[in-house]
Design brief:
59% helix; 111 residues; alpha+beta; 4 helices
Length: 111
Amino acid sequence: MRRRELIMVIGLVLSWLVGVSQASAISLEEAKAKGLLGEKLNGYLGIINAGNPEVQALANDVNQKRRQAYEDIARRDGTTLDVVESLAGEKAVQKTRPGNYVEGAGGWMKK
């Protein structure tokens, strides 16, 4: 699968995972908007303000589902997990709404 197609698949997976996490008491979008979670360059969520067990559980749940999806994509497409994670991180940062946090070279920053 070419890079462009792989990025499209990753985008669909990330969109699906946002919907899956909506069942939590605090949604992924709400946690991001409140500055509790942000998108990391490695394709996973990072906790910006630690100390909230509900946010930690949400991040763990979403990250576990993302990893499974990334492993499935890598296996299906004959590529490495690192490649899929990196492309997913790029896509997630691009899709992040203004005002939400993303991981940059110097740490967390608002987009």
